[in-house]
Every structure is written in structure tokens, then in C-alpha cells.
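tool_call: predict_structure(chain=1)
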Amino acid sequence: MSIEGQADLREALSYFGIEGLWRETIYRLSAGQRKRVELSKILLRRAPYILVDEPTANLDQDGRLRTIELLKRISDRSLVMIATHELDLIEELRADVIRLKGGSVEGIYSYEEFTRISDRLVGGYIISSKILLRRSSGDPRRILEKYGASVEILRFEVDYRALFRSLGIDNIPEKSSVSIIWVRREDLEKMQEKMQGATIMSGLDIQIPVSIDILARDRSLVPRLVEDIMSMGETEDLRISRVISEKP
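tool_result:
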């Protein structure tokens, strides 16, 4: 890459505050950092058409605001098409809408037309959060069972690199993985016998960094879900988005 090209790359990464990562290999980055890298590439291109899939996924509030500003900026020179389920993003960009259902086009609307029908399309709310989960809290999936079919966990991921670093393990193998399993203390010895070669950590006073997306089909459940999430541990980031889905 030329010196000029390197300068453009650093400027693009700087927009999202990740200029210090430009020599890092991609597999070492978190999901949010990878998303910022992908979005930074847009600043390096001068294409007439740009397609972006779920641009605000895995981003904190600062990253989300920067992404929205970036999309507005590049729409002056390119036709930008965004795949998203977020009504809030449509409203913030004042974008025209092509509505898809089952792979087919259901309708094409100007922004003004879409705002008139959007109330009929609010099928639920997604609560996205990053939590330092207390071990004593137990499995979040069990905590949310009381809501039945009104609540669905769409994503539950452990940031194993952050978990290893919190345990003082810095030399993390490239293809590492981790599973978090909640078990009764009396079952632990049986598990250790069956899981030959596995490392089982028990009784450690640690916090488990997780990312979780929860779909609430009823708006009235959102405040209770937020309280449940915050009771599980230290909440690093929490965002609520409306989603497009036909009401029954």
C-alpha cells in the first residue's frame, strides 16, 4: 500500500476511533471492533452504489451515532441501500423504504408514506446489552423463562477473549473457544469425569462478559426486562430498538 493509501486508511479508522488497531489481525478483534472496521471501508470507496447489512449491529451508542452520520455523509455521493429491521434507523436517516417479506417485495414507500403506516408494523422491541454477568446470577436464559413466548433470546454470546484476559491469560490461541455451563454443585464431579481434557472453572469470583439480544413482543414488558438485565450484573451498554414485524 502506498503512503497516501496508508494515510487514507488511518483516517478512515480514526473516524471510528480504532486507528490503534490498524495492524491487528481481524480474528483478534471483538464483534463491535470488526463492525467498525467494515464500516471504515466505506470511507475508502467511491462506488456509485453501496450496500450495508445491519450497520448498527454490535455497536455502542457512540458507534451508532458515528455510523448514522457516516451514512448521511456518503448518501450525498452514492446510492446507499441498507438492510435493517430497525424502525429507529429509518427515522433517523429519513430513508425511503423497500419492505420485504419472505424474500418478496411487499411495498415501496417514500419516507413520508412509511411513517403513516409504521404503527401497524411495530411487532416488538429488541433490547441489546453487554453485561459483566455475575456468576451468582445464574443462567440468564432461565431468568427469562417466566415471560414465556412473549420474550425470545435472539443472541447470547460470551466474549471469551475478555473473559480470558480477566483471568490473567493474555496469550490466547487463535482458535480458542469457551462454553459457559451452569450446573448444580453436586453434578460438577460427574461432568469432570465425562468432559475429558476440558478445563472447568468452579467457585471463581469472576464476571462473565456476555452480549445478549432479547426480543420483547409486548411493549409493556420492556421496563421489566431492563430491570432483569441490570440485576444480572454490571451493564456496560444497553440499547432498545423497535423492530418491523406484522402484528397478528
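agent: Residues 61-74 form the longest helix (14 residues). Proceeding to next step.
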